[in-house]
Design brief:
single chain, alpha/beta, 6 helices, 5 strands, 38% helix
Length: 208
């Protein structure tokens, strides 16, 4: 049975990435009635950054480590949610040119030697459709002044591919999101509105 894992990493209720990931999830569930769904909100329920004990247990699962039962259960739950999903949608705002620490903490629970794959090979997490919904205050598109400041999409692409989640990976990006609220960016508001509309249209098609 198809199963959707919906992961949000943005703070606040006026988040564009959260709005877009929620739209995709609603459309997907409407188009796939009766299927499974899990929403992990990393802002409402942050995943603790991994401790030394957790790190060692992920590197050496057969060795003895002093991680708590709570830490072990959380890592197992996150891994199980990814394993059971057939589709994953990630809501990812850009924080200081990169991904939020909330998402990084979640990724650190699934990125370890047991899940790593070599290029062209598959692994335990392979075979899933992944939609990464990105939101950015400005533009980091090719040819723009800040093109080389984008450590959001390149990082996500590399890390997801490393654990076999890059086979069917699509990025949907809304840019100039700050134009709606920042006076100095008011002249870019039409571009932000156009980018947002394109993101909605693309997500509607992906949710079929």
């Amino acid at each position: 049975m198809s199963h959707l894992l919906h992961v949000d990493s943005s703070f606040g209720t006026q988040s564009v990435s959260r709005e877009l990931s929620g739209y995709f999830a609603a459309e997907w569930r409407k188009n796939h009635p009766g299927t499974g769904y899990v929403h992990r909100d990393l802002a409402a329920e942050p995943v603790p950054h991994i401790s030394h004990a957790v790190h060692q247990s992920l590197l050496y699962p057969d060795a003895e480590h002093r991680q708590s039962a709570e830490e072990r259960d959380l890592t197992a739950a996150i891994t199980r949610e990814v394993l059971e999903a057939s589709v994953i949608v990630l809501g990812v705002p850009m924080h200081n040119y990169a991904v939020p620490t909330t998402l990084k903490a979640w990724l650190d629970r699934i990125v370890h030697p047991g899940h790593m794959v070599m290029p062209g090979n598959t692994g335990p997490l392979s075979g899933k459709t992944v939609v990464a919904v990105l939101a950015r205050g400005g533009s980091y598109a090719p040819g723009t002044p800040r093109e080389h400041h984008d450590f959001q999409q390149p990082y996500l692409k590399a890390i997801l591919q490393a654990v076999g989640l890059g086979e069917d990976l699509t990025f949907v990006t809304a840019e100039f999101t700050m134009a709606a609220v920042a006076p100095q960016m008011a002249h870019l508001k039409p571009m932000g509105e156009a980018s947002l509309k394109t993101a909605y249209d693309t997500l509607a098609k992906l949710a079929q």
